[in-house]
Amino acid sequence: MKTISFSLTVASLVSVLGAMPAGGGAAPPLDARTVIERMAARNPSLASYRARVHVDIRMVSFPFLAPKLDGTSYYKRPDLYVVVFDRMPSYARNFGRLFNDVGNPLAWQRDQNVTFDGISWLGGREMLVLRLTKKIHSDILDHTLAYVDAASYTLGQMEWYYTSGGKITMSEQYRLEGNYWVLSQQHATIRMPYVRAVADAIYGTYQTNVPIGAFGARTP
Fold first, then answer.
1. Does some domain include residue 176?
2. CA 176, CA 183: separation in Å to the nearest integer?
């Protein structure tokens, strides 16, 4: 089947991060621009990577489908973040898009207004909360909240709130691989008016600082 590519707008659930490097004890910034800049500045020597990813989806409402997806995650500094799935059943495409909004915080500002929304706590960790609203009004998505770890500036959780009353939550866990903190696992819970589902993603070994072409295609 034809390979399907999904951009992960950088920018994906309520487990929290494991032990991460300390932020030096400085007071956290209270403006969205600084938070995003510090998120983008993580792993400064990491120019690119690719890693295999496996996603298990389980619908807990009718029709109780349980698709399993395999693909490759690509990153290229400053803001290319793409997942290419090997195959994608038509009924699962919306599930695949869940992983598209969490990879690149620099991209959040392209089509959304991002503001600082206070400090919260998840699993005993201090989180800086960013509020995202579409620059062009959406009748579907009301707003999104991004929870950023105040010590490591990794994305801990995102929550999408829909005008229908639905909500999707995605949390992320990281691991140290070589010299870099990289995404290890994601967990999503989907509670929409007619859909209830969970999705779990596990990332394999990372190949870092490798040639990456446009939209994740490997260069010759």
1. yes
2. 9
